[in-house]
Amino acid sequence: MAAIASDETTKICSHCDRGILSSNIDLHYAHCSRNLERCKVCGDMVPKKYAEEHFLNTHAPVACSQCSETMEREILAIHKGENCPQRIVTCEFCEFPLPAIDLAEHQEVCGNRTELCHLCNKYIRLRERYNHESRCTGVPDNTVGSSRDVRPVERDQGPQRRQPNEFSRKRLFFTIAITGIAVLLGSLFFQRKTESGQVH
């Protein structure tokens, strides 16, 4: 749109509320009122012929495919990514994927599992692991007894600490292997079924 000359005055269109040059206001209003309408939901000016499409694509209620909650279409993506209680999230302790609604309860149990600290040979709760590692002196603390102290055999074997992503990698490789076997068996079964169908 060209810059408005400083000596020309503008008027506000009563239909679309835009500032229009005074010399063009009558022509603008005729075109504007005939072709545009204000959306009753968001207040945007949309072409009359696309008003229904605008409503359906932007404001019509839709149900979330994960939790069945009804909302406007334009916020559905944000809901699925950030707010849906059934969206899949990952446990910070075991990296297990589960619905967000179950995460707090799962992490309450999962965070209380223990792992052996390779520095001081004590079992530490997973939820306390990061704080412990920053404070751990590496000296076994024999002054405070614990039912979870390391047994002598484990102490002699050295650290048994699981690497953070080891479980996930093993699970991924196992899933890939099982999927490959299933595809192979399925194709063999299908091939035999096809061959027996052609004999008749």
Describe the structure in your own words:
This protein is α+β, with helices and mostly antiparallel strands and 200 residues long. The chain is 43% helix and 15% strand. The chain has helices spanning 25-35, 51-59, 76-83, 100-110, 129-135, 152-157, 166-199; strands at residues 10-12, 19-21, 36-38, 45-47, 61-63, 70-72, 88-90, 97-99, 114-116, 123-125. A two-stranded antiparallel ribbon has the order 1-2. Strands 3-4 form a two-stranded antiparallel ribbon. The radius of gyration is 33 Å and the shape is flat. The termini are far apart. 0% of the residues are buried. Mean pLDDT is 80; it is low at 143-147, 149-156 and 158-162.
Task: Briefly summarize what is shown.
With 200 residues, the protein is of the alpha+beta class.
Shape: flat
The mean pLDDT is: 80
Number of strands: 10
Order of helices and strands: EEHEEHEEHEEHEEHHH
Biggest sheet character: 2 strands, antiparallel
Kindly report the spatial arrangement of strands forming the biggest sheet. 1-2
Strand content: 15-25%
Based on CA atoms alone, the radius of gyration comes out at 33 Å
Report the helical percentage: 40-55%
Keywords:
43% helix, alpha+beta, two-stranded antiparallel ribbon, flat
